Amino acid sequence: MRAMILAAGFGSRLRPLTDRIPKPLVTVGGHPLIAYPLALLRAAGIREVIVNLHHRGDAIRAALGDGAAYGMAITYSEEPTILDTGGGIRQAQGFLGGDRFVVLNSDCVMDLDLRALIAWHAQRRALATMVLRRDREVARYGAVEIDADQRIRRFLGQPAGLDAALTPLMFTGVHVFEPAVFDHMAQGRFGITRQTYPAMLTAGCALFGYVFEGYWRVLDTHAGLAEGRHDLATRVCIRPQHQP
Description:
Elements: E1 2-6, H1 17-20, E2 27-28, E3 31-32, H2 35-43, E4 48-53, H3 57-64, E5 73-78, H4 84-91, H5 93-96, E6 101-105, E7 108-110, H6 114-123, E8 128-133, H7 138-141, E9 144-146, E10 152-155, E11 167-177, H8 192-202, E12 207-211, E13 216-218, H9 222-234
Parallel strand pairs: 1-4, 1-6, 4-5, 8-12
Antiparallel strand pairs: 2-3, 6-11, 7-13, 8-11, 9-10, 9-11
C-alpha cells in the first residue's frame, strides 16, 4: 500500500510562527510534527508516501529529503497553486491510484492502529472509510453521522430529512480509499470533505466510519500546539524513530 500526507496548507492559525516555519516542521516532542503521521505509516508497514507541498514546500523537502532517515520512501507533489485537500489527492492519482491507499493530515498526533483500520475497511468492502471520534463540540467541527452498522448516512447535515437513528461524530483527518474514489472527484481545486464525500453519499457509495477511542489531538492552533507538547511530555504515544 501507499499513502499520502497532506502538508500544503498555510497553517494560518499558527501565525506568526508559520510565516517562517511550515506547520509540518513545527517541533513537537523533539520531532517535526509531520514525523508523527510518518511514524503511524511505518508502524503499519507502509513505506511509500507522497507529500503535497505549497507553503514553504522547499523547507519541507529539505528537512525530509527522500525519507530514508524515517525509514520511508517519500515522493513529493508540488502545488504551484494550492489545490485544497481533494485537489491535492487528485493530483497525486498517478502515485496513489493503483491500489487501496491511506490519506492523513500532517498536523495530528494519534495512536491509531492503521493495520486494524485497513483490515476493518477491507472487511466492509468500503469505497472510503473515515476515522471518526466522539467530541462534545462535534457540531462545531461538522458532524459525520453513522448508523448502527457504522455506515455513514448523513454528512454535514445532509440529507436533512433522513429518518434514522444516527450517531454524530467528528472527523480525525484519516481516510482509507479504494482507487475508484477518483471516479467521484472533481477537477482543479476542491475539498474532499466538502465536495467529494457528499457526492459519494448521494451516489449511494459504501462509506463507513471507523470509531476511534484512542489518543488524538490536532495541533493547528497555538493552544492546540501547547496542549500537544504537554501531552507528549507526559504520556506514552507512538513516537517517531529517525536519524536527524
